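# step 3/5: fold
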Amino acid sequence: MLTRKQHELLRFIQERLRESGVPPSFDEMKDALDLKSKSGIHRLIMALEERGFIRRLPNRARALEVIKMPDGAAGPQPRRFNPAVVQGGLANQPNVAKTRPPAAPDEDARGTIAIPVMGRIAAGTPISAIQSRSHTVSLPPDMLGSGEHYALEVRGDSMVEAGILDGDTVVIRRQDTANTGDIIVALIDDEEATLKRLRRRGSSIALEAANPAYETRVLGPDRVKIQGRLVNLLRRY
């Protein structure tokens, strides 16, 4: 039997995972439940984990998986933030870029889709903007949804509390708009590409890190171009 707050938190985590595949941050959970501190969220998370409703995924900062709901109904299952691992690792495809031109991803005979990896993206200190295509990763269509996609290799630790680690590969749906709360690829001043959570503050755009060691950057809308939205993530083990 769950308390009302435990049930509310479980529902919030499940809905956020289903919508975006990204677990909510502790600050977001605190605000959603109208709590005054994150220590209350820690206690609720521990209680849900002890009762077998959620699981904290190993080696990932605050990455959560909903195992069951209290009513026992299966319902639609939320997408995990780590939906797949490319067999053999991402580095074992050195010749793909030589045999495929840099065009839109194509579906192959096995039913997978080749997604171009377009270089590195900063999740920490700034690096150069998105580079040219280097290789591809093949993903099943149900990991992508509609639209055009590309992938980027993550460098830095500013998004660790959203479950995005240095060395991960993020899968991005190409789009130039996004909703507040989405994790996006932002191009700043046409020079610097970064992976951050989008917030809107009046007429300004805030690029929010998921690591308290990094400050939120607040910029004018003319300085930021949205290059796409995070839809999935790959990790090598």
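# step 4/5: annotate
The helical segments are 4-20, 26-32, 38-50, 96-99.
# step 5/5: archive (pending)
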